[in-house]
Write a sequence for this structure.
């Protein structure tokens, strides 16, 4: 039974669900606490129109399908059963009834519910009805005395009742008068229940839907995208691009047949995403795509700038399309052009520059409509007075400055500036102003007089991308029209629903909530959990498609237009996933059995008989894992193994391999050949997985029959006793190897020395060779065994391992030890136990594998032993080596490792945990950087390292150089160090300049007599050769200016700042050519750069330059800087920084 819906629901106690749906609000009225004045104003229940107007007003924009009023007289209340149904009544073509609990539904209140009247299984398939209803319980003789409550609900076959568990308190009903005259609601043992029912039409099919078991594909034919954490902004943009069908077709045309790694190609990942959106039945993951972008988990949990994402994605896809049939498709679809002009008023002179745009940023603040924003965009500014324009040959002139559009694209992306910097609060704020946009819009008023108007510039709204929330918390979703002239659909991450025009447009204009029916226009913001009049949901991006191009832009894409290789590859992956799924479902029918043989044992150098996993071990040593039906007979299993090993099945003898209490695994017991199945045979000796077997290959006796024991060795004249299966390992002191040498059976009463003859025969050693023995008890316990004791005295049992080696004289053992090698199995086992492969990388070659190597070392070795081993490999002096750790997540160097006498390699690789250590900064457990120093570590202690970014090729390339200088040194010492590192000539040295930069802006130029102690270690130091142009500058007419790069806003700085010479009287068109040489930015990339004067007094409002401007005249203050506004393509996507797509 559904819970009561009341007006005093404590919203603060309701947790905000991640998948919040703003339409799931419930309006309810509880009159228990109504004042006397309110009760006096209550209309009579019999005045239906007045009742409906006051308590059940119609919801704006919802059309009533049918309405009904049903009255039910309740008599003999106290004699009624626990649960009572009213007679059935009709409304909207559906049967309805009232469900009534006279004594409460698990509450001390009377409970009333509206319930559909269909019998079990009688409701039509997928039946639903959206209903507003009001239940009124009144005095049977005085209809002005009543208690009422209302609700709205989507009734379905599986959710057929809705109402109020706490409709009225029983105590109040029976013992509390409702009027001053002492009249009770319940009179003569009865009351009247009046139901006002209004069935409303459901325009979208999801009105008041709870979305339990909702199927987007079934309801709309489309699927959504899964949210990875905070990727709703990405999902809304991707859906918009996907339903720009010509864009999707162009993406399909990018050649990706040779691609195998999704992570390396964002175009291939986008193709796969579009394929799945087109053909999948459920929501599609974007994990492949974001991984191909090079994003990490940090990026998918941060909401980013959609405009920047769109621009970078377009740029990356355009690059991938070069040289293909899709080349230029994107520019034809999305690129328009505008002309920036300055036109003199009193003379016939005009300066103009035409540039392309992919999208437009429109001001919301101060504009009420889309047309207002465009009028604002092309508003003409008058340059006069102190701001006159310098025109060639005409000098300073009054002029008109503005922008006019030459061409709008087929698909127009409009970015609405819903987020702006607030100077009062010194932070970014969301703009909530009401801003209206039309469904059909004419762009022609904003075109220049010379524009080609042969084709209509009428546009139709295709998409509305919405932000709901505020600056700090919110959600993104999109309303799109997938087809020409079709309906809107809402794409909210993994859910796709039909939407009305009002939902897509009117409700996203922003402004304040409407006030209707006397109720406050306030609503609760689900992200801030505060009540607000401001609409927290508003459009931030609009997509318009040119009317004359709708047929081509929205042309249907069939499966035939999907690349065959893409479809084949994804189908193969799905088949593999289905195979694995089926394998998981059938897993209970199978068991995995690991099977090892003497061949594995002989190929293995390590603990036990064979490796426990297959990582970094020879393939020959790894046991073979068989997936067997549990019902496989032991006979069939032996035959299968025999076929594998190319022997007769009757010679195959499986032994159970069990784990001992000392954490070793050894063969223990032969399997019972009488067991019918392999599972039963194993369960007798091993009670749980993993199941392991060792296969003994028997020999035949003189009669040709299998010999159950290969050979029993005993002392002469001694009675053979129970044979014990022992495994032999040989330690070779010359080769420094410890490998398996087979197995033998020895009588339990025999001596250890009884094995010697068999060992000598197997090894081909002469009779009389002296041997020494050890038992491998466990990994860190290798004990010597006397050859004189018996097997029983040595406590040897089936599966034990005996290690042997030839006895060597002390002098030979000493020579082996001096060579750094191991003299016996215990020492070699200690090496195996602590062995680790360390990968060394030259810190001087971070961007290449040059100087990279690996060594097998012991974790117990000390710092000096480590240095000695590496020095031996590199053929350098050990005290000229310096090491640093490797950050596991990035592969970049950590701080240098201090040389201490007692530090082991294990401690060096895993330093003590710090409170500042995070998962992103954890050290790699098997890698180290090394650096070969020009001086010893002792000398190094008196110096410090300074990092310098050395610039070349203009300023487009910088190499980091680390220079050792005295701790008390000067910039001159740094210059001397750079000269040695870079092998600079005296001429180059004199033209070298050092610049100190803070946050990608020049702070000061460094002089040689400055102390290095005045330079903060967190700043960036650039070194460059002073350009020839600057060396030849005229000191009387030329001046220098510092320049920096930014992305849209001067606070979003990036790349390398630089010093630039400004020539007196030079027009900026010529200045740009010199800037191109200075920066190395050329061609189309230069065309994308906007140049601006950035003054210290008005830092956040750059003054953009045109080709006819004269830079020397626009630079007013000595603190003015030149800004280069262009996209930052070099850094990862982090908040307030540029976005990267690989």
């Amino acid at each position: 039974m559904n819970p009561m819906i009341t007006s005093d629901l404590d919203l603060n106690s309701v947790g905000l669900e991640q998948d919040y749906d703003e339409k799931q609000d419930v309006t309810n009225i509880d009159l228990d606490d109504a004042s006397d004045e309110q009760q006096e104003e209550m209309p009579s229940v019999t005045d239906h129109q007045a009742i409906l107007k006051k308590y059940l007003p119609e919801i704006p924009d919802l059309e009533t399908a049918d309405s009904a009023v049903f009255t039910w007289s309740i008599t003999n209340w106290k004699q009624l059963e626990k649960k009572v149904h009213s007679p059935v009544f009709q409304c909207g073509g559906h049967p309805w009834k009232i469900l009534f609990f006279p004594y409460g539904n698990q509450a001390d209140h009377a409970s009333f519910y509206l319930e559909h009247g269909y019998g079990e299984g009688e409701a039509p398939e997928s039946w639903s009805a959206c209903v507003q209803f009001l239940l009124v319980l009144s005095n049977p003789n005085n209809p002005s005395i009543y208690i009422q409550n209302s609700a709205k609900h989507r009734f379905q076959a599986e959710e057929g009742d809705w109402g109020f568990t706490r409709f009225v308190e029983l105590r109040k009903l029976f013992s509390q008068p409702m009027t001053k005259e002492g009249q009770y609601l319940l009179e003569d043992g009865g009351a009247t229940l009046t139901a006002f029912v209004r069935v409303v039409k459901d325009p979208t099919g999801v009105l008041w839907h709870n979305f339990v078991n909702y199927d987007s594909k079934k309801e709309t034919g489309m699927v959504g995208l899964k949210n990875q954490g905070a990727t709703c902004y990405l999902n809304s943009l991707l859906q918009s691009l996907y339903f720009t069908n010509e864009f999707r077709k162009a993406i399909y045309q990018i050649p990706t047949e040779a691609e195998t790694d999704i992570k390396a190609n964002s175009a291939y990942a986008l193709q796969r995403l579009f394929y799945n959106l087109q053909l999948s039945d459920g929501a599609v993951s974007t994990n492949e795509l974001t991984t191909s972008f090079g994003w990490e988990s940090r990026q998918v949990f941060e909401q980013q700038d959609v405009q920047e994402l769109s621009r970078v994605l377009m740029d990356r896809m355009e690059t991938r399309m070069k040289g293909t049939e899709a080349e230029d498709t994107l520019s034809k679809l999305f690129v328009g052009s505008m002309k920036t002009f300055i036109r003199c008023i009193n003379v016939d002179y005009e300066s103009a520059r035409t540039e392309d745009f992919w999208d437009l940023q429109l001001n919301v603040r101060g504009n009420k409509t889309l047309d207002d924003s465009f009028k604002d965009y092309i508003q003409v500014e008058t340059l006069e007075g102190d701001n006159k324009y310098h025109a060639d040959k005409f000098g300073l002139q009054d002029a008109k400055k503005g922008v006019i559009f030459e061409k709008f694209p087929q698909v127009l992306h409009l970015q609405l500036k819903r987020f702006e910097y607030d100077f009062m609060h010194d932070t970014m704020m969301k703009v909530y102003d009401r801003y209206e946009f039309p469904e059909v819009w004419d762009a022609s008023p904003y075109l220049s007089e010379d524009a080609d108007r042969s084709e209509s510039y009428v546009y139709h709204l295709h998409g509305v991308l919405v932000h709901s929330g505020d600056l700090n918390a919110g959600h993104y979703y999109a309303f799109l029209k997938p087809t020409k002239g079709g309906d809107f659909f809402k794409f909210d991450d993994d859910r796709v629903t039909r939407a009305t025009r009002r939902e897509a447009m009117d409700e996203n204009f922003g402004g304040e909530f409407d006030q209707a029916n006397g109720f406050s226009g306030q609503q609760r913001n689900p992200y801030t959990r505060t009540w607000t009049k401001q609409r927290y949901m508003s459009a931030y991006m609009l997509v318009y498609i040119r009317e004359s191009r709708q047929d081509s832009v929205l042309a249907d894409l069939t499966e035939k237009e999907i690349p065959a290789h893409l479809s084949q590859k994804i189908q193969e992956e799905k088949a593999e996933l289905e195979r694995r799924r089926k394998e998981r479902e059938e897993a209970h029918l199978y068991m995995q059995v690991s099977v090892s043989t003497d061949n594995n044992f002989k190929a293995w150098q390590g603990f036990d008989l064979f490796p426990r996993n297959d990582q970094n071990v020879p393939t020959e040593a790894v046991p073979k894992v068989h997936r067997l039906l549990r019902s496989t007979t032991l006979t069939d299993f032996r035959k299968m193994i025999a076929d594998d090993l190319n022997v007769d099945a009757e010679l195959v003898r499986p032994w159970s391999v069990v784990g001992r209490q000392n954490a070793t695994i050894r063969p223990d017991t032969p399997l019972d050949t009488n067991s019918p199945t392999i599972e039963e045979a194993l369960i007798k000796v091993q009670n749980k997985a993993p199941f392991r077997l060792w296969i003994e290959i028997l020999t035949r006796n003189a009669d040709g029959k299998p010999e159950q024991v290969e050979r029993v060795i005993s002392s002469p004249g001694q009675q053979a006793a129970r044979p014990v299966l022992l495994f032999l390992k040989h330690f070779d002191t010359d080769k420094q190897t410890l490998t398996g040498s087979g197995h033998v059976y020895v009588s339990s009463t025999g001596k250890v020395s009884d094995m010697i003859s068999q060992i000598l025969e197997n090894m081909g050693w002469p009779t009389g060779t002296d041997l020494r023995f050890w038992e491998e008890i466990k990994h860190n316990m290798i004990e010597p065994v006397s050859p004189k004791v018996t097997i029983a005295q040595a406590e040897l049992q089936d599966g034990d391992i005996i290690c042997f080696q030839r006895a060597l004289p002390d002098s030979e053992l000493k020579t082996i030890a001096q060579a750094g090698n191991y003299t016996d199995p215990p020492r070699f086992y200690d090496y195996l136990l602590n062995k680790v492969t360390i990968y060394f990388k030259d810190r001087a070659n971070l961007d290449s594998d040059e100087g990279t190597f690996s060594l097998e070392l012991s974790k117990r070795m000390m710092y000096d032993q480590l240095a000695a081993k590496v020095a031996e490999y590199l053929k350098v002096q050990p005290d000229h080596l310096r090491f640093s750790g490797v950050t596991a997540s990035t592969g970049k160097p950590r701080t240098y490792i201090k040389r201490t006498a007692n530090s082991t390699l294990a401690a060096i690789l895993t330093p003590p945990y710090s409170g500042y250590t995070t998962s992103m900064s954890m050290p790699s457990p098997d890698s180290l950087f090394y650096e070969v120093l020009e001086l010893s570590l002792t000398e190094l202690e008196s110096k410090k390292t300074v990092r310098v970014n050395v610039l070349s090729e203009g300023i487009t390339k910088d190499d980091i150089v680390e220079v050792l200088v005295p701790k008390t040194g000067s910039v001159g010492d740094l210059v001397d160090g750079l000269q040695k590192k870079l092998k600079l000539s005296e001429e180059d040295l004199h033209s070298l300049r050092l610049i100190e930069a803070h946050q990608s802006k020049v702070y000061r130029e460094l002089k040689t007599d400055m102390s290095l102690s005045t330079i903060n270690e967190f700043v960036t130091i650039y070194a460059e050769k002073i350009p020839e142009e600057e060396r030849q500058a005229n000191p009387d007419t030329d001046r220098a200016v510092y320049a920096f790069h930014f992305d849209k806003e001067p606070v979003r700085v990036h790349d390398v700042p630089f010093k630039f010479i400004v020539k007196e009287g030079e027009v900026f068109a010529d200045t740009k050519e010199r800037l191109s040489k200075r920066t190395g930015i050329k061609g189309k990339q230069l065309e994308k750069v906007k140049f601006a004067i950035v003054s210290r007094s008005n830092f956040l409002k750059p003054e953009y330059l045109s080709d006819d401007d004269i830079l020397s005249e626009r630079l007013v203050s000595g603190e003015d800087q030149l800004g280069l506004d262009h996209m930052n393509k070099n850094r990862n996507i982090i908040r307030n920084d540029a976005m990267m797509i690989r």
Observations:
- The longest helix spans residues 564-585.
- The first strand starts at residue 64 and ends at 74.
